[in-house]
């Protein structure tokens, strides 16, 4: 899809969201007007108008892809969201529940009764049920498991037995398997008898009679080779394979590195038990990216933008409390030099520059380090070299930009000594920012925490307090 096509699709989705919002607003306006009217036909008029708007809204929703409906639901306040949700056809509930974010899904499930939840879940595959099951009421899950056949029940239990960050929790059980001793013509006839192929089928999995994976047959090889050839002659016998206990994010990186669309999942004995597909990997990468952004800002979890005030407070208060403590520490650092600031008022005007530039530089460093750690580019063997490189970058930036602001300080206040102090303080604070930008995520990792957790808050605290102390300390020593 070209950039222009992507832009058009996005614009179309935004237009449809605007149309849904307009219909909801029109419905509220008409309801307000009819409520104010009096007469025998009041209820009839209200019901007709109400029904007309809902029919138009439902028609628009029916034309949308499930992912687009999910986007619209996430962009609506709770009352409007539930109104739209009630208009979605029951057979689409399951697909949409899988597309919306976790926080929004919770509000939708809370609005559904057990019968509706069971109806939605029955349309899902085993891997999809495993994704949704932890968020469903226990009695619904129990009843749902009773309705599944033995194979489906075992697949769901298998997927639920793995941690959500493991390959086993994401693998798909719908796949096409073939034998290596048959001809390509036999394989083609077999495929024609199937009603449809599982989504993202770019290869067939070759197994023996015990289910042991022998290789994969890419569809493109199947189509271009002589139909008389045997599968064993054409298949790839060294495919990229995963085990269910492996880290899912490592698998996602492998998908990107090897341009995979699907890949087999095997147990310790080499028996084929499932497959990974590109759609799950894309979703995982997106979720990981969103989580990192939230963690760096000090948010504990994904938050529904229209969540209640209390829920948003619970999500945000912890790191705000920590930030308040660090801000108090920074204010106490300034308080240590009140006498210096009173004697040289220029210090009060210049010290935010030192702290601000240090915080920005630290955030740049910490972002690069967290990204490198996520891509497994940081190891004990290259940590020292990485530290030297970041300190060298900070030193050069400090001397260059510190020199610039030093000249500005001289031009503003006519003091070369103040300019030199400004340059030195800027350089030292950038060095501190670089040091902390490397140490903070690495320390969090060694403690078993997400390296991005509150990183932005912590680096800002260090550069603020450190910057104030360095600048005001140097000024007190050399200027007063």
Describe the structure concisely for a colleague.
The protein is mainly alpha-helical. The protein has 21 helices and five strands. A three-stranded mixed β-sheet has the order 1-2-3. The protein has a two-stranded antiparallel ribbon with strand order 4-5.
By CATH, the superfamily of the largest domain comes out as SLC41 divalent cation transporters, integral membrane domain
Estimated structural class: mainly alpha
Could you state the order of secondary-structure elements as H and E? HHHHHHHHHHEHEEHHHEEHHHHHHH
> Spans with pLDDT under 50 lasting ≥5 residues?
1-9
**Strand-residue fraction?**
5-15%
Helicity, as a percent range:
55-70%
Please tell me the total number of domains: 3
CATH topology of the largest domain: Tetracycline Repressor, domain 2
- What is the CATH domain class of the largest domain? Mainly Alpha
Number of helices: 21
Give the second-level CATH assignment, the architecture of the largest domain: Orthogonal Bundle
Distance between the termini: 65 Å
* Shape, per Cα inertia axes: globular
* Total E-strand runs: 5
Major sheet: order of its strands?
1-2-3
| Spatial extent as radius of gyration | 30 Å
Question: Mean of the pLDDT scores?
Answer: 85
Main β-sheet: number of strands, strand sense, barrel status?
3 strands, mixed
Provide structural commentary.
A hairpin with a 5-residue loop joins strand 4 and strand 5 (272-277). This protein has 480 residues and is mainly α. Helix 20 packs antiparallel against helix 21 (455-479). The strands form 2 sheets. The chain has a 3-stranded mixed sheet. The chain is globular. The chain has 3 domains: 3-166, MgtE N-terminal domain-like (MgtE N-terminal fold), CATH 1.25.60.10; 177-296, CBS-domain (Roll); 309-479, Tetracycline Repressor, domain 2, CATH 1.10.357. The chain has helices at 3-36, 42-62, 66-74, 78-87, 93-99, 102-110, 114-121, 126-132, 138-147, 150-160, 184-193, 219-224, 231-234, 248-258, 278-296, 309-335, 338-343, 346-374, 383-413, 416-446, 455-479, and strands spanning 177-178, 203-207, 213-218, 262-266, 272-277. It contains 21 helices and 5 strands.
